[in-house]
Hints:
The structure is a single chain. By secondary structure, this protein is an all-alpha fold. It has one domain (4-420). 83% of the residues lie in helices and 0% in strands. It has helices at residues 4-42, 45-65, 79-114, 120-145, 149-172, 178-201, 209-218, 221-225, 227-247, 250-263, 265-287, 293-326, 331-350, 355-359, 363-378, 388-420. It is globular, with a radius of gyration of 21 Å.
Amino acid sequence: MIKYKEVVQSLKSLGKDVFILSVGVLIAQLIPFLLQPFLKRTFTPEEFGTYDVYLRSFSIMVAFCCLKYENAILLPKKDSSAKHLIFLCLISSSSFFILLIILALIFSESIASKFEGFTLIALILLPISVLFYSIFNVFNMYLIRRQKFLLSSTNKVSRRVSEGGVQLVLGLLNNRNGLLIGDVAGNIVQGAFSFWKVWRIAPLKYFSTKKLKQVMFEYRELPIYTLIPNVLNIFVLGSLTFLVLTKFELKEVGYLEFTQKILSIPSVFISISISQVVFQRISALIIKKQKIVPLILAVITILTLIAIFFVIFIEFYGTEIYVLIGGTSWESSGEYAKILVYASAFMLVFSPIGKVLIALKKFKINSAWEIGKFLAILSLFFIDGYSLTQYLKTYTFILIAFYIIYGILILYQSRKYQIDNQINA
């Protein structure tokens, strides 16, 4: 039986580290949030639609950069192995960057003709942003490994300050690429800042080709079993953008960009911070062959309470909030939010504990779930004649069903791990 005291103790232990990460994330998110009233009145829904397509494409490309080896940085017992995983990730992301630049130059005209707003400038900025975000992600994982949560937290602040500042200035100058250029500036600053912090803590001076090959082989299951499922998951998260882009006008993509930006606030502020800490904690507990279920239940409990409050808030005040921030022309974003908030709530609860399956090395189970979710969402692209509201409701229902299944799988595998290792739960 799971003891109530164990759950409470796990929650208290988790709280400090999550708070440190969350404060930085909160400050980082307040910056773009405070800029929204200006940005939404400066850039058009169509320009935000282009920006959203850009960001969704960016997310998919980032997933390929390091072939998911960045997730292994927390796992090795020896720090030298973790550092060689960093080297492996940097080599992979640099190679991918060169490939993207070549493809952008070759296919720029073809892409620009099919996607409004995707000029050569956008196609060149995209790989640069991907490279520097990848650099940040790699070094940030090492900071989490070393439990430098405060340093990790300030990385996000550096990005948002530079990103928001550039977008603000270029908006005042009526530069139509201001949103894209601001994103690149933020990722460059964030990547450079995280590298500098890690270099001060543990300089990456020793390099061994033999060791590099060793860690590549040892953690080969990550690219084999988690890369494609992760890409599919990112596609699912951005599927509304691509779905609406193919079936409706670009301005509807812009409205949904604003919808999802506000709905993502709890996830960015709480869920991502908890996810990073939980992954570190679960990995450490597994190495020590200790119980993990109390920690998981503690996380689910607090996130469920937050999700319930968020749903109630959006239901009662959603439209008013969107109009207040963006102006009357963005009312549609608030109406869409009242539908999508339920899917966001279930994702908020179960996404942060998703890496438990990775820590338990249940890559195939995680892959099967990701593929199933992807296929279900993909089916929406083959349905014609729906209104936008009907698409949103169907999308929401699919995500709720799959995240309930996800939670059940995680709890079952965690309990099974404890039984298999004869840990008293």
